[in-house]
Amino acid sequence: MSDEAALPEPDRVPGAPHPREALRTIGQDQAVADFLSAARAHRLHHGWLISGPRGTGKATLAWSIAKYLLSGSDSPDLTAPPEDPAVRRIRALSEPRLHLVRRPLDDKTQRLRSEITVDEIRRLHGFFHMSAAEGGRRIAIIDAADEMNPAAANALLKLLEEPPARATLLLVAHQPARLLPTIRSRCRELRLHPLGPEDMAQVLAGLGVAHDAARLAALSGGSVGEALRLAGQDGLELYQRITGLFADYPRMDRRAAAALAERAAGRAGAEGDPFDLVMTLLDRFLTRAARTGLMGAPLPEAAEGEAAVLTRLSPGPESARLWADAQASLSARARAGRAVNLDPSALVLDMLIGLANQPAL
Fold it and tell me: Shortest CA distance to 261 belongs to which of 272, 271, 250, 274?
């Protein structure tokens, strides 16, 4: 698997180390305990479906399992000694007993394909049919399995139906419902959940991110990947500005609205797309307003004074319904506007003015 090292990595969050570099999985104790229980009872299933929202540690768990099994570690939390030869080889993508399946590079465009092709799964078949090395344990990580095209999914199903001896397939899936039911039924599922503020703080500190972990946890929905994106694009500061726009609703500072709209017109780069970021945060604000009317203001706050603003905007179920309708309408307008290449700044400003002119809210 050494050839993989030169390719772009679709399974890596920009600005963060690859999950294979992580020392352990944080905040997913139940999933770790479930796997260890099966392994120690010698009931190691041949297929494991690691599911959950994006950025919650699914890939990290898959790589932790691979290190644990191939190093022979007996740790209580899936950690393996970083100096272990197998662990070093895994981190260098040179471990012969491990095969990684992910979206390949298109030879013509030199860009990553949008899906995992059947050729990648055929290579996986070849990997498992080679002679077993160093004791016979062989592991495959498919990240993400829900990115397989139909032909690839059917080829994987054949492998799951007749698994090789001492083979372990780890399927990372952000949307497991997109997988064939027959694939899901042949795997044991490890379901991961969004991280809380304390676990988020621990992960971000390990990555050297010096931001407000509680607010990032709230704004990212407990996704480390999303938290890193927000941190890298000053998402907390931008969300504070959005919250401030609604502080005197339905009055709205037009200059502040225009400045926010102008921010959305920036050029997309390695850190992300400014228009996508503004729309994501505006969408999140409206969603949190809708939820406030039903369940009260969310804690922790994602911006200073957010709870007071949301409580005033959405005091009850009727307000919640109106904000939910506004969120759905704006999301649809954003998709339609982007599809026909409307000016991002004008599109965002029009949305903000439209919200301010809706007296029903």
Answer: 274
Give the tokens for residue 209.
């991110």
Tokens of 150: 């139909």
Is the bond preceding residue 334 a cis peptide, omega within 30 degrees? no
In the 8-state DSSP scheme, what is residue 125?
H
State the distance between the two ends of the chain, measured CA to CA, in whole angstroms: 56
Look up tokens 């850190």; give the residue.
271
Amino acid at 4: E
pLDDT in tens, 344-360: 999 999 999 888 876 55
The residue ranges of the chain whose pLDDT is under 50 are 2-5, 133-134
Q: How far apart are CA 74 and CA 36, in angstroms?
A: 9
The token duo for 315 is 């005091």
Give the separation between CA 149 and CA 104, rounded to whole angstroms: 12
Tokens read off for 144? 């993400």
User: How many whole angstroms from its chain centre is CA 186?
Assistant: 24
Given a contact cutoff of 8 angstroms between Cβ atoms, the answer to whether 50 and 190 are in contact is yes
C-beta of residue 227 within 8 angstroms of C-beta of residue 217: yes
CA 242, distance to chain mean position in Å, is 24
Distance between CA atoms of residues 319 and 46, nearest Å = 50
Name the residue with tokens 């030169």: 6
111-138 burial, b at 16+ Cβ within 10 Å, e below that, comes to: eebebbbbebbeebeebbeeeeeeeebb
